[in-house]
Amino acid sequence: MSVYAVIMAGGKGERLWPASTRARPKPFLPLGREGKSLIQATYDRVLPLTGRERLYVVTESALALQVKAALGLADARLLVEPQGRNTAPAIGLAALAVSLADPEGIMIALPADHLIEDEVTFRKALQAAVEAAQEGHLVTLGIEPSCPATGYGYIQRGELLGSSHGHDIFKVKRFTEKPDEDTAQRFLSEGGYYWNSGIFVWRAARILEEINRFLPKLAQALKKLAGLWGTPGWEAALRGSWQEVEATSIDYGVMERAEDVVVVPASFGWHDLGDWQAVWEVFPRDENGVAVRGEHLGMDTARALIWARPGKTVATLGVSNVAIVDTQDALLVAALARSQQVRELARQAQPAPPEWDELFKLDTSGMLEVVAGFPDQCRKGLELGEEVDLPQGLSGFSRVLCVGMGGSGITGDLLGRFLSIPVIPCRGYRVPSYIGEETLLIGVSYSGNTEETLSAFQEGLSRTRRALAISSGGKLRELCASRKIPWIGIPGGYQPRAALGYLLFTLLSVLRRLGAAHLDLKEALATLAEQAKALGPASPGNQAQTIARALAGGVPLIYGTYGNTGPVAFRWKTQINENAKQPAFWAELPELCHNEIVGWELAERVLPGGRVVFLRTGHDHPRVQARIEILKEVLLRRGLSYLEVEGEGKSEAAQLFSLLYLGDWVSVYLALLNGVDPTPVRPIQELKERLARL
Ligand code: F6R
């Protein structure tokens, strides 16, 4: 009979606003010892009892990536609810996972956001609880109350059943919801009452039986899900049923109604850290009662909690009994004694996030539809490339110079990833001086009117007769006609960056015919078609939307790898710039290990919203993969969040293009979250117009 632990990482922590926000709620705040986040501290605290293999975290989809990154958790250990439905469904899901792994498994369920001072006693209390659970009891840990708190539920003990690991085990007589002050006072003077810690231990099979008895809708959903565990149908079934299950707490839904519930009373310095006053109480304070995180300059300041943001000093003069919390989003100044009411402010400051259906209305020019059509573009591009007339004299080149800017220019970088000869992307007015007859010159400009491209292309023509161009028309077409150079026409009416399928796949097809590319794109095309369905607006809560939510409000730092995902990282950056209208940066491994990582040292101060995204495929050098693992640890230490996204499929092309396509979707969803229409790129147009007038 093995012991499993399930950490419940949910909740809003509204009373700790503005440090705790919807996107980064209380479990992620550095309130644990040595500046650890509460969730990390919780994880480390139970690890000795279970080991990594039997430690699960259950969370809602909006927080899943963060939980995974914060703990370096394997996918199989992360249980993701489509949306949080209070503790009973979360526990039901976790009990299902545990019982499938081990029908006899004992399960410890505990919240991710508690602070515990005496970890040794905590684990002993849990061991006592595990023994009681082995005998079939439903066990809860009760905290010896130190004051008549009204913020917690109370458990009244009944008959003594025995003891274990230095802890008594009592039958539970009664649960009481949060009492008023007089009742709490009475409980304390009568004795035999404990605070309800929200930490439970039971056999997974036993709690599932109780759910069967008391929560029929949840039970039904879990039965349906049991047969789908580990199959592709799991996610859809979970999404389909989760709206229907009883959104209730396990205390109310089961524990208060079940037979044979026992309590293990314990005293291990338990803190729920429910509000800023509670944080002030546990933080170290100076002789005036001032507790500080960050830089504080105080004069005549007493009984205060100061929470400053990195790089900014909070200065106070002649104030007392106050909580001052400064974050990137908001500055809170509150009377310490009224900390409970911060929740009301938090609700006003953070209205519920808009529904996707509302946000789709911002896409007035139809970028979502265009992105959905990308796989189709790629397929048509390949066909088009087959039909192009290619004059004899073109072949025989030993390198390619790809002249183009912006959404067209990236074609050169991506071609370089797949050609068997060097490809030099050229983004400027002039071509490199070493270019000669051995070079195939390709002009790429969707509009056909980009002046840098036209200038470099013309100069290139004076160096080599091997040349071709691709555009939807414009001056490039005229130039090709007058110089009798093969010109490939692709459909007009798109934004250049949204015509990448045509630009790139047509050229890939042409270059395959010219003997410079040897790749099978079948799997890539099938993967893209699958993604179009999975990532589109008709799949709510999809991966691209989740990533976009995780990036929203921050500055994405997209990391690819040299010779592999580098160009895709660059595409993510440029798509985020042009679609989402916000800054984003990219870099490549291993190079970034020699410079950028030093820049992380002050990132919390100068780029507090930095969000790293690692693009991963199975085709990176093993040492590069090892570097990523180390970087992830470094990032966590620096308090920077990161995401990892994996390419789909097996072939290099499938993995690369699926990552690229995912980025395109992310950038469009991010635009909508930013409240902007993804399509227009006015600053680019304005600049081109001004230059044209010069
Ligand atoms: C706009 C876009 C731009 C253009 C760039 C060059 O959607 O992607 O980056 O690609 O201004 O223009 P073209 O592609 O027409 O040569």
Provide a compact summary of the structure.
The chain has 694 residues and is of the alpha/beta class.
Task: Tell me the β content.
Answer: 15-25%
Low-confidence stretches: none
Q: Helices and strands: which structural class?
A: alpha/beta
Shape by Cα distribution: elongated
Helical amount: 40-55%
**Number of strand segments:** 26
Small molecules bound: fructose -6-phosphate
The major sheet is characterized as: 5 strands, mixed, barrel
Q: Please compute the radius of gyration using only Cα atoms.
A: 30 Å
Q: Largest beta sheet: what is the strand line-up?
A: 6-9-7-8-10
Number of helices: 26
State the distance separating the first and last CA atoms: 80 Å
Describe the secondary-structure layout.
Elements: E1 3-9, H1 38-50, E2 55-60, H2 61-71, E3 78-81, H3 87-101, E4 106-111, E5 115-116, H4 119-134, E6 138-143, E7 154-164, E8 167-176, H5 181-190, E9 193-203, H6 204-214, H7 216-226, H8 234-242, H9 250-255, E10 261-266, E11 270-271, H10 276-282, E12 290-293, E13 295-299, E14 302-307, E15 313-317, E16 320-326, E17 331-335, H11 342-349, H12 356-359, H13 367-372, H14 374-387, E18 399-403, H15 406-418, E19 423-426, E20 439-444, H16 451-461, E21 467-471, H17 474-483, E22 487-489, H18 500-513, H19 522-535, H20 543-551, E23 555-561, H21 566-580, E24 585-589, H22 596-599, H23 603-606, E25 610-616, H24 622-637, E26 641-646, H25 652-673, H26 682-693
The structure holds fructose -6-phosphate.
